[in-house]
Design a protein that fits this description.
The protein is an alpha+beta fold. The protein has two domains: 43 residues, Pemi-like Protein 1, Chain: D (Ribbon); 32 residues, no CATH class. Helices cover 42% and strands 18% of the residues. Strands 1-2 form a two-stranded antiparallel sheet. Strand 1 and strand 2 form a beta hairpin. The model has no long low-confidence stretch (mean pLDDT 93).
Length: 76
């Protein structure tokens, strides 16, 4: 399939390709050996107020989260 680059460096991805991969809002873009690779990236809507309320209800604090992150990084 052919896609044209506009004067603003924009490319329209053919409908057939988008139908195959879904409708991602974002792509990770890489250049490897002269090939441009577009990888769909999934994003998730977050409601920070709801997350913070859940953390409070569980008794989690910023310190608890920092300790959990430090623990996970040591395990990796």
């Amino acid at each position: 399939m052919l896609a044209k680059v506009t004067s603003k460096n924009q490319i329209t991805i053919p409908k057939q390709i988008m139908d195959e991969i879904g409708r991602p809002d974002y792509f990770e873009v890489q250049c490897e050996n002269g090939l441009v690779l577009l990888k769909p990236v999934r994003t998730y809507d977050t409601d920070l107020a709801r997350i913070r309320a859940k953390m409070r209800s569980l008794g989690l604090t910023e310190r608890t989260v920092a300790e959990a992150v430090a623990w996970a990084r040591r395990k990796a």
